[in-house]
Specification:
The protein folds into 2 domains: 8-234, TIM Barrel (Alpha-Beta Barrel); 239-291, no CATH class. The protein is α/β, with parallel strands linked by helices. The protein has helices spanning 17-23, 44-57, 77-87, 100-112, 128-132, 134-139, 155-162, 174-186, 202-215, 228-234, 239-253, 272-291; strands spanning 8-13, 30-34, 64-68, 91-94, 120-125, 148-153, 190-193, 219-222, 262-265, 268-271. Helices cover 45% and strands 16% of the residues. Helix 2 packs parallel to helix 3 and helix 11 (239-253) packs across helix 12 (272-291). It is built from 12 helices and 10 strands. The chain binds coenzyme A and magnesium ion. Magnesium ion is lined by residues 37, 95, 124, 126, 154, 157.
Length: 293
């Protein structure tokens, strides 16, 4: 796919067979099959088998499949990475990434295990060092052989590790969120916002999605099916945005505008950089249509 929508990416406990099955019918853009914090220690090996067979079993259309493994320091990491590579999802999500070295180490391990180059690596940004080293971690994704493709904000762990509160305005975490957006953009990575725990509070959830989009997030990680639809709407270009983008593209394609840098559309100044943004907007809208066709 030329562009992969990641408006809504839903976590599922790897040990929850019902959720894994249900996911096939849910309209999220992607799924994270969790082997880490959503799975109790006694269930790790059962979850690993369930997730591997769900990913291999398919039935998810073109939606993105990601397996979150346990941290490298745990007794489960080796088996998780091996099973994930064999199941061949779109990406492996590594928790608690604190240094660029972790990115390089997991990438190398995946290659040793024979992972195809298109199996990407995603990094959880959820520790104080993740924030302090965000630029270096993102830079580990710059090489053409690098697997690193996406940052995922782990706001619950950030709260736990720092003592910062989870508030509606997110002021205690704002600089960490924006630091990670800047680091991701500097090295052309994608970035997904953290989860909203109170899944019955739709108003609060919508406000947080809008906040995340305003910060430049590509989408949001989710914990419950009820969150998918609103999230998809907020992180997609609106019909009005798409219509205006098409207008800009058409206008700059007119012969009389061929040599112009700036033109007027609907009383607004539009420059060539807006035409670039417009093309991107249309690409996203088309990709969303294609993903869920
Ligand atoms: N993915 C897929 N399906 C899910 C789901 C998820 N994350 N969460 C709930 N569902 C399904 C349930 O299986 C149920 O399906 P059914 O009615 O067809 O059997 C339906 O959605 C309604 O679920 P509900 O009863 O409202 O929720 P619950 O009490 O079963 O579960 C949670 C609540 C929070 C435990 C559950 O949503 C969950 O495990 N979320 C993900 C947690 C996670 O992975 N955390 C790690 C990262 S933060
Ligand atoms: Mg975490």
């Amino acid at each position: 796919m030329k562009f992969r929508p990641r408006r809504s990416v839903l976590y599922m406990p790897g040990s929850n067979a019902r959720a894994l099955e249900k996911a096939r019918s849910l309209p999220a853009d992607g799924f994270i099959f969790d082997l880490e914090d959503a799975v109790a220690p006694d269930m790790k090996s059962e979850a690993r088998d369930l997730v591997a067979s769900a990913v291999r079993g398919g039935g998810f259309g073109k939606r993105e499949l990601v397996i979150r493994v346990n941290g490298l320091e745990t007794e489960w990491a080796d088996d998780d990475i091996k099973a994930a590579v064999e199941a061949a999802p779109n990406a492996i999500l590594v928790p608690k990434v604190e240094t660029a070295e972790t990115v390089r180490e997991v990438s190398a391990r995946m290659s040793e295990l024979g992972a195809a180059p298109n199996i990407r690596l995603w990094a959880m940004m959820e520790a104080p060092l993740s924030i302090l080293n965000a630029g270096e971690i993102a830079a580990a994704g710059a090489g053409k052989d690098s697997r690193l493709a996406c940052f995922v904000m782990g706001t619950n762990d950030l709260a736990k590790e720092t003592g910062a509160a989870i508030t509606a305005d997110r002021l205690p975490m704002l600089s960490w969120l924006t630091t990670c957006v800047a680091a991701a953009r500097a090295y052309r990575l994608k970035i997904l916002d953290g989860v909203y725990n109170n899944f019955r509070d739709m108003e609060g959830f919508v406000a947080e999605c809008e906040h995340g989009r305003s910060l430049g997030m590509d989408g949001k990680t989710l914990i419950h099916p009820t969150q998918i639809e609103e999230c998809n709407g907020i992180f997609a270009p609106s019909p009005g945005e798409v219509a205006f983008a098409r207008k800009i593209i058409t206008a700059f394609a007119q012969p009389e505008n061929k040599d112009k840098g700036a033109i007027t559309i609907d009383g607004r100044m539009v420059e060539r950089l807006h035409a670039q943004i417009a093309r991107h907007t249309v690409t996203i809208a088309d990709a969303i249509t294609e993903l869920h066709a």
